[in-house]
Amino acid sequence: MTVTANERLGLAPTDPRPPAETQPAADRTETNPLFGDQKMKLGLFGTNCSYGLIMSHAPSSYEITWEHTKEIAQRADRLGFDVLVPVARWKGFGGSTNFNGNCFETYTWAAGVAEATERIAIAATSHLPTMHPIVAAKQATTVDRISGGRFALNMVMGWVPPEMEMFGSEQREHDERYAYGQEWLDFVNKLWTEQGTFGIHSTYFDAELLEAYPKPHQGPRPALINAGNSPSGIEFSARNVDFNFASLDTLENIKGYTTKLKAKAREEYQREIHAMTYGLVVCRDTEEEAKRAFQQVVDEGDWGAAGNVIKIAGSGASQSFDHAVKEMQERFIAGWGGYPIVGTPEQVTEELGRLNEAGMEGMIFGLIDYNEELKYFGDEVMPLLKQAGLRH
Fewer beta carbons within 10 Å, N or C terminal of the chain? Predict the structure, then answer.
C-alpha cells in the first residue's frame, strides 16, 4: 500500500470545517435563472469564439475582444435572457476563417462575465478529458461564488480528435468517453458535496485524502448541462444533468426526442430533466430581408471549415450530428448544425412557440451580429414573446 504524504510527514488531520465552508449558501432555485419560471428560456451561444455560430465571412461587427464579449453579456443580462453558454475550443477548424479558433477559455471567461453581470446564468463548457476533476470542481465553485449561484457546467466528452492530440492522447471510443465522463462527474460531485476528506478508487481515477472548500454557492450543486444526443449521451443526460441541449432537424423529431428523454429520466432515474435546443436566429423587418441575410451567410460561407467539421463528425467522433452529416454543409455554415429560425419578429415568436410545444423549454442561439441584433431582438421580439405567454 502506498504511504501518503500525510503519513510520511506526520501531518495533523484537518479539523471539521464550519458550515460556511461545508454548506451551499442558497438553494439554486432562488439564485439560478435556469431554474426560473420562464416558459421559454432564452440564451446566447458561442459569444466567446470567433465567428460565433456562423462559418462565414458575412459582414458583422462581432469580434473576440473582452470589451465586446462583455458588452454582449451585459446587454443580454439587461434584456432578461436566462443563460450564456460558451463553446469550448482548443483548436480552430481551419479553412479561411479558422472557425472558432480565436477564443476565450470558458471557465475564466465565465468568471469575468459573472462579475460583469447581475442576474443571467453563466455556463462554462468543459471538455472533460482535458480538465482534471479537482481543478474543474474548484474553478466551478469559484465562478459560482463570484456569480452568487448563477453558474452552470456544460459537460462535453471531447469529440474532436485533433484537439485531443494537442493534449498528447488518443481520443477514447465514443461509449468509453461517457464511461469516463460518469466517473469524472461522480468525482466532481463528491468534491462539491462531501464535508470531510475522502478517497476515489475507480477505473479512471485513484486518489486519497481529497477535500475541497468552500462548496458551491448554489445547492445541492450547480446546474449541469450536456448536449449528447446519441444513446450513450441520452443515458448520461437522463441520469445526471438538469438540461439536455439537442441538435434536431424537424419539430416532429424534436417532439419524439423530448418525450423519450424526459420519460427515461423519470422512469429509470426518478428525476426530472429539461430539454433545450440551439441554432441561428436571423430576424428582420420582412421575411425577404431575413432570408436574404441568411443566404448571405451561406453564400460567403467557409466551405473548408464546414467540410472539416463534417469529416470529423462523420468519422464517428460525434454521434450527436449524425442527421446533419448527411445534409448540406449549409446547416453548419449557418448555425453550427443547429435549428435555424429565419423571419420577421412575428415569425420568430411563432417558431419559438412551436419549439416549446414540441417539448423544448428554451433555446440558446447565435446571431450574425450579436451585439447589434440583440438590440433589435429586445425591441421587436421580446414584447411579442410576452404577448404569446412564452415570457413574462
Answer: N
Q: Residue 246 pLDDT > 60, yes or no?
A: yes
Is residue 198 within 8 Å of residue 206, measured between CB atoms?
Answer: no
For residues 45 and 281, give the distance between their C-alpha atoms in angstroms, rounded to a whole number.
11
Task: List the one residue out of 334, 329, 344 whose CA is nearest residue 377.
Answer: 344
Which single residue is written with the C-alpha cell 449561484? 149
Look at residue 280 and tell me whether its pLDDT is greater than 90. Answer: yes
- Given a contact cutoff of 8 angstroms between Cβ atoms, the answer to whether 209 and 4 are in contact is yes
- Evaluate the omega torsion of the peptide bond into residue 220 and state whether it is cis, within 30 degrees of 0: yes
Q: Which has the closest alpha carbon to 118: 76, 64, 86, 68? A: 76
Terminal CA-to-CA distance of the chain, rounded, Å?
60
pTM: 0.94
Task: Map out the domains of the chain with their CATH numbers.
Answer: 31-383 (3.20.20.30)
pLDDT band at 57 (very low <50, low <70, confident <90, very high): very high
Q: Is the pLDDT of residue 262 over 60?
A: yes
Cα 119 from chain centre: 18
